Amino acid sequence: MSGTLVAGVGNVFFGDDGFGVEVARRLQSETFPEHVQVADYGIRGVHLAYQLLDGYDTLVLIDAVARGEPPGTVSLIEPRLDGRSEVAPDAHGMDPASVLAMVHELGGKIGRVFLVGCEPAEICERMGLSEPVERAVEEAARLVRRLVQEGEA
């Protein structure tokens, strides 16, 4: 295993669910060390799972995460991985936990996993982020940059 994958996930057609995609798009225009790959996976969970089979020391997922905080709150979570899933794969909308479980079930290994999450204000059928979530995009991008610079990711 080697390298770091920074993966923005979410559905841009459901408002704040597109948060991870927007952060990844912003980061893609920047220069990172050679071992860091930044990509927008959107709702292509199966694609992300197969990419992870290549083996990465670190995965940084960026996504909207409802935790009961005020909308726009950015959180850094290091999820516990147990490799189990009760969810059947859905090629068009796998959540991050299902993606990680699928990688495990396919025999892949992932080193450390970080989730940079943002509390959504509204997830509904519409394009664009709500105002508090839009303001959180740069904060999340700074957090990803810090993880990479400090060698965490």
Q: What are its keywords?
A:
5-stranded mixed β-sheet; Rossmann fold; alpha/beta
Lay out the secondary structure.
Blueprint: E1 4-9, H1 19-28, E2 36-42, H2 45-52, E3 56-64, E4 74-77, H3 96-105, E5 110-118, H4 131-149
Parallel strand pairs: 1-2, 1-3, 3-5
Antiparallel strand pairs: 4-5
Helix pairs in contact: 1-4, 2-3
Name the CATH architecture: 3-Layer(aba) Sandwich
What is the C-level CATH assignment? Alpha Beta
Whole-number total of structural domains: 1
N-to-C SSE series? EHEHEEHEH
Number of helices: 4
Largest sheet: 5 strands, mixed
Q: If strands are numbered along the chain, what order do they take across the biggest sheet?
A: 2-1-3-5-4
Distance between the termini: 13 Å
Q: What do you see in this structure?
A:
This protein has helices at residues 19-28, 45-52, 96-105, 131-149, and strands at 4-9, 36-42, 56-64, 74-77, 110-118. It is an alpha/beta fold and 153 residues long. It has a single domain (4-149), classed as Rossmann fold (3-Layer(aba) Sandwich). A 5-stranded mixed beta sheet has the order 2-1-3-5-4, with helices on both faces. Helix 1 (19-28) crosses helix 4 and helix 2 crosses helix 3 (96-105). The chain is globular. Residues 83-92 have low confidence and may be disordered.
